[in-house]
Amino acid sequence: MNYPSEAPESARLFERAGVVTPGGVNSPVRAFGAVGGTPRFMVSGKGAYLTDADGREYVDLVSSWGPLLHGHAHPAVIDAVTKAAAHGTSFGAPTVNEVALAEEIVARTAIDQVRLVSSGTEATMSAIRLARGYTGRSTVVKFAGCYHGHVDALLAAAGSGVATFATPETEGVTGAQTHDTVVIDYNDAEAVWELFEQRGDEIACVITEASPGNMGVVPPRDSFNQVLREATLKSGALLISDEVMTGFRVSRSGWWGLEAVDADLFTFGKVMGGGLPAAAFGGRADIMAKLSPGGPVYQAGTLSGNPIATAAGLANLQLATDEVYSRLDAVSTELQGMVSAALFGAGVPHRVQYAGNMFSVFFFDREDDVREVRNYDDSRTQSASKFAAFFQEMLARGVYLPPSGYETWFVSGALDDGAMSRISDALPYAAQAAAAA
Ligand SMILES: *Cc1c(COP(=O)(O)O)cnc(C)c1O
Predict the structure, then answer these.
(1) Distance, CA 1 to ligand 1 centroid (Å)?
(2) What would the 3-class secondary structure string for 266-283 be?
(3) Among the atoms of ligand 1, which is closest to the Cα of residue 120?
(4) Which terms in the Gene Ontology molecular function aspect does this entry carry (predicted)?
């Protein structure tokens, strides 16, 4: 298989989209900015495969950025969505499925209570508001390269030292909005202790990806999450474990199932929505009691706990048994081995990193550049051009990868022998393309 690099129907749609939508997309990475070429407009998905507007079929290693644990259009999920839709799309009143989904999440995790929202961004934004309300403190600590959605206070870059305030990372966020945010390097325990020594009593919370997947996969090392737990406990700050990506993706209990560090608040999204907009934040009962309507911290949502989204999420989670996670681990390990072997074969400097079944591949320009990627600075040494060349060749050969070297590759339980052999056929060509780039 070798598709032409032009994709006429997608190109036409992209042009149409660009007239009425900024950049032609509704979320930036979809625009293929990091890899070039025409973003593929998708018309359908089934199991491990996506079909685009030009009728081309791809093995999907994005899985909607994580949610599709069981592949596209799984019959149980589609059935749940169809049945829910037939009963009405939204009531603006409590429903049974919201309770069932909350029970399922609580049963799988260490949290007492959960509040449903519609996106991961809303979940982290609300968790931070709650942490500030609960502690009566202002400062939020985050790590460079960790992404928590497009929350104003979290779109912040590091200041010149731990004692300074963060600066906005984007136009449209003001200094006031990042004034109470501190950004430090991931996996740097010393920086954490130094910060808490200087300003521990101002800190409302530390928010961290349970295991980061938004700067490529960069797992916590040397019990970093435990360090965060100890530092926050000592100073009376809350620890927020952002499991929007890892939650119910890497184990039936998310990252917490692999490393049981008891954060005060957790955020979820992606898998728990089964491909529909549903997300959540939750934690200890005494903290959650501060939320409206019972408590003083306001939070609300017209479509929160939407009956169709909760039906999809519940079906997705009910399918997610321990056997499924074992299979995802095995498929991920096999895939990592295949990619690495092809890249070694072509002499492409690279490093594969994984966390549970999530993994990513860092390409480097020279063998001397290869390193363990521990933080965002390390991640930024990767080769954009080699990744782009690799990506385009995989795409041409019918494999859809995340269109950026800073993203996680997501496997699904639908990857069968046919899908794996298509990937395996494509890899040597993609590795050659990366070697030549
Ligand atoms: C995807 C993601 C978010 C944001 O979720 P949205 O639903 O895109 O708003 C937040 N945190 C992490 C760790 C994520 O991966």
Answers:
(1) 34
(2) EEECHHHHCCCCCEEEEE
(3) 5
(4) glutamate-1-semialdehyde 2,1-aminomutase activity; pyridoxal phosphate binding; transaminase activity
Question: How far is residue 363's CA from residue 159's CA, in Å, rounded to a whole number?
Answer: 29
Whether residue 331 is found in the same domain as residue 314 = no
345 part of a folded domain? yes
Q: What is the pLDDT of residue 424?
A: 98
Whether residue 67 lies inside any domain: the answer is no
Q: Do 219 and 95 reside in the same domain of the chain?
A: yes
Domain boundary among 319, 340, 360: 319
Note if 234 is an active site residue: no
The tokens describing 92, both together, are: 């603006």
Comparing CA positions, the residue from 116, 208, 77 lying closest to residue 154 is 208
Q: What is the structure's pLDDT at 157?
A: 85
Measured in Å, residue 124 CA sits from the centre of ligand 1 at: 8
Residue 112 annotated among the catalytic residues of the structure: no
Choose among 183, 335, 320, 347: nearest CA to 257: 320
Q: Which parts of the chain have pLDDT scores under 50?
A: none
Tell me which residue range forms the domain holding 432: 8-61+321-436
Q: CA 405 to CA 124: how far, in whole Å? A: 24
Q: Which DSSP state fits 23? A: G
| Catalytic residue check, 134 | no
Concatenate the DSSP letters of all residues of 157-170 into one string. E--SSTTSPPEESS
Ligand 1 atom nearest residue 212's Cα: 13
Evaluate whether 407 touches 245 at the Cβ level (below 8 Å).
Answer: no
Residue ranges around ligand 1 (CB below 6 Å)? 119-121, 124, 147-149, 209, 214, 242, 244-245, 269, 279
pLDDT by residue (tens digit) across 3-50? 999 999 999 999 999 999 999 999 999 999 999 999 999 999 999 999
What is d(CA 321, CA 298) in angstroms, rounded to the nearest whole number? 35
Count: domains in the chain = 2
- Return d(Cα 58, Cα 1) in angstroms, integer: 11
| Distances in whole angstroms, Cα of residue 285 to Cα of each of 44, 109, 123, 204, 256 | 42, 13, 17, 18, 18
Q: Are 280 and 241 in contact (CB under 8 A)?
A: no
Please tell me whether the overall predicted TM-score, pTM, comes out greater than 0.90 for this model: yes
